[in-house]
Amino acid sequence: MSAEQMSAEQMSADMGTIVSSPTTPSVPDTPDPALLDDLVAANRILSDHGVLDAYGHISARDPLHHQHYWISRSMPPAQVNATDIIACDLDNNPVRPGETRLFFERVIHGEIYKARPDVMAVLHDHSPSLIPFCNSDTRLRPMVGSAAFLGEGAPVFDIRTIDDEGDLNICTVAQAKGLARALGPHGLVLLRGHGAVAVGESIRQVVRRAIIAESNAKQQMQATMLGPVHFLTASEIAYAKRMQPKDPDRAWRLWKQRAMRGSGQ
Amino acid sequence: MSAEQMSAEQMSADMGTIVSSPTTPSVPDTPDPALLDDLVAANRILSDHGVLDAYGHISARDPLHHQHYWISRSMPPAQVNATDIIACDLDNNPVRPGETRLFFERVIHGEIYKARPDVMAVLHDHSPSLIPFCNSDTRLRPMVGSAAFLGEGAPVFDIRTIDDEGDLNICTVAQAKGLARALGPHGLVLLRGHGAVAVGESIRQVVRRAIIAESNAKQQMQATMLGPVHFLTASEIAYAKRMQPKDPDRAWRLWKQRAMRGSGQ
Amino acid sequence: MSAEQMSAEQMSADMGTIVSSPTTPSVPDTPDPALLDDLVAANRILSDHGVLDAYGHISARDPLHHQHYWISRSMPPAQVNATDIIACDLDNNPVRPGETRLFFERVIHGEIYKARPDVMAVLHDHSPSLIPFCNSDTRLRPMVGSAAFLGEGAPVFDIRTIDDEGDLNICTVAQAKGLARALGPHGLVLLRGHGAVAVGESIRQVVRRAIIAESNAKQQMQATMLGPVHFLTASEIAYAKRMQPKDPDRAWRLWKQRAMRGSGQ
Amino acid sequence: MSAEQMSAEQMSADMGTIVSSPTTPSVPDTPDPALLDDLVAANRILSDHGVLDAYGHISARDPLHHQHYWISRSMPPAQVNATDIIACDLDNNPVRPGETRLFFERVIHGEIYKARPDVMAVLHDHSPSLIPFCNSDTRLRPMVGSAAFLGEGAPVFDIRTIDDEGDLNICTVAQAKGLARALGPHGLVLLRGHGAVAVGESIRQVVRRAIIAESNAKQQMQATMLGPVHFLTASEIAYAKRMQPKDPDRAWRLWKQRAMRGSGQ
After folding, report:
1. What average pLDDT does range D116-131 have in this prediction?
2. Which of A33, B221, C178, D77 has the fewest CB within 10 Å, making it most exposed?
3. Which band of pLDDT confidence, cut at 50, 70 and 90, is reported for residue C21?
4. D133-152, pLDDT tens digit by residue?
């Protein structure tokens, strides 16, 4: 909920931008069925795991139209259905005119897709166990092999490097560009006093990273109580980056089955 | 449950006061339907989130009769229905004669409404993660933007500043006045060895504050394990106070839907 | 499960004692219906709260026959029904001949009823958050008013003061007498490497104490992370001991309703 | 999920080995019904307790054919049914030709059965509270009598003692032999940056050990916050090893009833 405050002035300015934005007719009205299915499932799975609550959002770049991404309307992720998914261009303008129920922080998605051509999915969340690392000098580092994407430690973006006064939400292009710079080539960036952004080559990879980041954070905090922590070594991190996961969809299928059970919760 | 002990003497004295109290006919028998609906939902949502258990209570000032507030009869919040909501005046006397199933600590509500004309809703709870901060010199401080209402740290009320010997419940006007003084202009005050009181301009804001305070407390305790904690800055706190929340009802609707599902639990 | 190991030799010796024990015909076949109902509910409530798992047991002294107590047969508390409740004398022999499904540690109950005429109910549990305090020099102390029964700190019984070699279960009269001595006039005693015993003037008070002890332990551990902890003062502890609880049955009714919902789980 | 990465090269090499492996006709197509029932229940119980998630596996040595063991096909343990159980020889080759849905880390099972003739069941898991101890110099030690099998501290296997570069999964015979050596005569070994392996004389004992290890780890971490921890003494550990558990199936029956309720989850 930390992304929930903006001035009335900002709000109408933003709305104005949306209404007057150019649309791109070449993007279809609905995404590829498989991508649509994964995007809905991702919203539900992340809610089921407590990574998303009433706020936060996940998007997927269109595989055929790289200048567009798919995202739900502004709503609780736990309630997202296929008909709630809309297309935006990389300036975060909705393709279909008249769409007004939009996430204000969607600027995060467009700027990261611009900065990272390899990225096919973006998630912004307030995952509870990540918050302590957002506000600490202790880096979030990999405890287990599946968390190797955290590398030598997740970077932390401090919005004060862009605006010295303001709330902590990513509402402007300048802020989102700063965030994308802090992300750099990483798979996850933490936002001081706010939450996290995870990226990846697919919706499923981003979901996996977000769920692993949450459990890794818990385990790292617990390990800290026991004394010095032994993280993955540099060679283990490097090795993991060269490899493909063996059977990642085993978790996806289980998570999806559980999350869709309470369908329409 | 820390508010559950009083001498038999106190008990009958209190009861006596209630029976002989003057009532105000101008207050309607039931509150505005929207307020009533929110007040019932608030009881259920706070129970669903573990902020309230068998004890604790939330009230709302009547928007047309500022000298009265609405609160449930003495009962577990998880079981409150619309017919359980009654009116009290600011001396905490029930409007309808003969009401005897009343919270003993309701004196908290009247005294805070007297001291804080801006306050439209009051909650007293024993939210589990707040208790450690009630008994510590470490202040509860905002980890994320949505917790900016905690300011530079929530104040702690020590009942010994009023009564040197006694239990820790707020049973007398003097104690409640002391509590209201400790609250001052804040949105939340902690009670040593007891719990918390949250206030706000609406039922929904108070519910939001209570739920955020609970998660913020957990995250602050975890962050403490990692080393020095970076809280919101003074300018971020100030900025947040000037702003309106963007879409606070998104969380309310989700919380209500989930809480009312187990209706009559 | 820490009470689950004994030599085959001990086992048959114990069984032999049971079979040859004198019974007392004056005790009825079933307890008072209200007590029976509370004892079944207590088993379910404590399981529902995680205070009891597959092991542990709660008993109630018969209000008319003080030399006898009621307890379930050896079984998971979550599955106890009225027909599972049997009577034992204070030497822990079942009143009805032929009963063989008995808790081995029931000797705890008899010895405490002998040593403490004021005690009407006894619980032995392995409540998860109490275990750290069983194995620490840090005393479990009251964080809130409802935990005042913990006084200046719960005593810890070390079975090595009785037997230098052995497992950690209370299987002999000597061990149970040692435990009763360590309990002294307190409401709760911790057992090193094992669990806890709570006592009280009624089943409901013992259930309340056990549930409060568990949450108090969690909160005290959390508070320890924040720095020095301010516990209840001596005068607050003394005051609480002189008082009757105001509305303790409000919690009991809510807990019972929730626990019996999954009846026969 | 930390065991989920291998190169395509390794993958096909492994597959090749499987297809060409000799099978043993003397092993029946399905295991003894009681063993089969316990193995399915074990998968469900461990999932229900969070010891297993989408990954991890438990096997049982055939009581009549000691050179073979039973294990599920590669799938989430929560979804295992009787028809998913297959036989492998101790070189981890499936008895029935054509089986290809196999756990890549099953080499753990064969090598431990070879090294430990007393072992009748093997579990590999990523139990969440064990991970901090995998990456720490603080040993996991018994807090309560039922955890006495942890002895003076669970050993930790560091895969770097076998391969200096690689991921953290146990994919080769050399790695599995190294793991078996680190396990030695113990009941549980931790794997740095990865998880744990528990062994025992029966499926039920292994399940018990895994569930107790998880809760013991939580309690040891909490106790560490309170100051120096008093673990079981050497004589208590020795005593526990000589004894048979009194009523271990009481927990098994309760766990099974709860886990099978959500059957086919």
Report:
1. 98
2. A33
3. very low
4. 999 999 999 999 999 999 99
pLDDT in tens, C197-224: 999 999 999 999 999 999 999 999 999 9
Dihedral sign computed on CA atoms, order B216, B220, B221, B225 = positive
What is the signed CA dihedral for B48, B49, B53, B56, rounded to 10 degrees?
-110
Chain B neighbors (3+ CB pairs < 8 Å): A, C
Nearest CA-CA distance, residue B149 and chain C, Å:
21
State the Cα–Cα distance between residues B200 and B185, nearest whole angstrom.
10
Q: Give the amino acid at D131.
A: I
Rounded Cα–Cα distance for residues D136 and C29 (Å):
56
Contact predicate C38/C80, CB 8 Å: no
Q: B89 Cβ partners below 8 Å, 6+ apart?
A: B21, B22, B23, B24, B67, B68, B95, B110
What DSSP line would sit under C225-263, residue for residue?
Answer: HHSSB----HHHHHHHHHSEESSHHHHHHHHHHHHHHTT
Is residue D131 within 8 Å of D65, Cβ to Cβ?
Answer: no
Phi/psi-derived region of residue D101, left when phi > 0, alpha when psi is between -120 and 50, beta in every other case: beta
pTM of the model: 0.91
Q: What are phi and psi of C142, to 5 degrees?
A: -70, 125
User: Are A208 and D1 an interchain contact pair (Cβ–Cβ within 8 Å)?
Assistant: yes
Residues of B in contact with A165 (CB under 8 A): 235-236, 239
Q: How confident is the model at residue A244 (pLDDT cuts 50, 70, 90)?
A: confident
Q: Which residue has the tokens 């009757």?
A: C244
* Identity of residue C137: D
C-alpha distances (whole Å) from D157 to each of C236, D160, D184, D219 are: 52, 9, 11, 23
Q: Average pLDDT in the B23-49 region?
A: 90
pLDDT at C3: 35
C vs D: CB pairs below 8 A: 126
Chain C hits for D233, Cβ within 8 Å = 160
ipTM for the predicted complex: 0.90
CA distances to A36, A152, B137, D113 from D68, in Å: 45, 43, 61, 9
- Does residue A166 sit at the B interface (CB-CB below 8 Å)? yes
Helix (H, G, I), strand (E, B) or coil at D100: coil
Average pLDDT over residues A150-175: 93
Q: What confidence score (pLDDT) does residue B205 get?
A: 97
Q: Which positions of D are annotated as active-site residues? A: 105
> Does the pLDDT of residue B23 top 50, yes or no?
no
Q: Looking at CA atoms only, how far is residue B192 from chain C in angstroms?
A: 8
